[in-house]
């Protein structure tokens, strides 16, 4: 495995872990699951605060909704595969940003 592939895999893992931690923390605090419906409150301060949260929590929400839809609505495998690829790429980007932020702060070498 090349160092670049290992770095990408690590970024994907960190992105999914960060997304899961954010969503579970929100659910423990708000007593309801997080979702993209947080953006439907119109122009309000909490809607603007939800945007950065959803940027990092989206991979977990996408996968949760996709897997739930696969069981409940019997979605096709192609749709599930496409949603998984999108969530994985999104997770890699958010994980890369998080790792770059940790490196810039001097936490990681």
Task: Give the helix/strand layout.
Elements: H1 3-30, H2 45-72, H3 77-104
Helix pairs in contact: 1-2, 1-3, 2-3
Portion of residues within helices: over 70%
Helix and strand pattern:
HHH
Shape: flat
What is the number of independent domains?
A: 1
Low-confidence stretches: none
Distance between the termini: 21 Å
Alpha carbon gyration radius: 15 Å
Major sheet, described briefly?
none
The count of helical stretches stands at 3
Percentage of residues in DSSP E strands: under 5%
Beta strands, count: 0
Mean pLDDT: 92
What does this structure look like?
The protein contains three helices and no strands. With 109 residues, it is mainly α. α1 (3-30) crosses α3 (77-104).
